[in-house]
Write a structure and sequence with these properties.
Structural class: alpha+beta
Number of helices: 6
Helix content: 10-25%
Number of strands: 12
Order of helices and strands: EHEEEHEHEEEEEHEHHE
Largest sheet: 5 strands, antiparallel
Radius of gyration: 17 Å
Distance between the termini: 24 Å
Strand content: 25-35%
Length: about 240
Amino acid sequence: MCYHTTQKAEVEELKKAFDLPMVDESEYNKHFHANGFAHPKLAVIANDGQKALFNYNWGLIPFWVKTPEDAKKLSNQTLNAKAETIFNLPSFRDSIVKRRCVIPVNGFFEWKHVGKEKIPHFVHPKEHPFFLLAGIYSHWKNPLNNELISTFSIITAEANPMMAEIHNTKLRMPLMIEPRNLEAWIDNSLPKQGIIELLQPQGDEDMFAYTVSSTLSSPKVNSDVPEILEEVPYII
């Protein structure tokens, strides 16, 4: 699955790269290691009232959730949405039709199982600054204080050959949108068949990976630091 990403670009870099404004720039914080289970805010591209960069929390909360307790519990279960079942599950089926977004990341982390070891890898584009991860979003109003919380989920698909070698237990990877398909993906009027045609796994031609420090796996160590992206060799 995809629970750990990197979004280390500065605000101006994101705005320039996609020729878009960012709503509420003060909410943006770059992350060298964004852990989904901490529900960080990440910049997403969406057509949400306007076409722009927004800062939404990772872990989708559907609009119909009743209580903060249920919202918190569900947000840990909706960091990812499987492309194969996204139209069927109650948490996702409304958003995939009406509220799609792209999460521009500089890369993501995944673990390879070798015997009893789990070896962390950083996967990044070979030639471009960003992977455009396919996502969906939702808005939920907290009934206790009427606060509107905007959240997203990253869509995953079957792993391509390179990712199957790395993520060798789950055989999954984040679904990526080709830059030429960005406008179509965030078009809220795109019919279902058009959405399905874009829900296809990407090849590994523009992907590169290397191993990083095992501190990435430790909850006791702050791994949201530049050093986490440094290559660390392992002897297998």
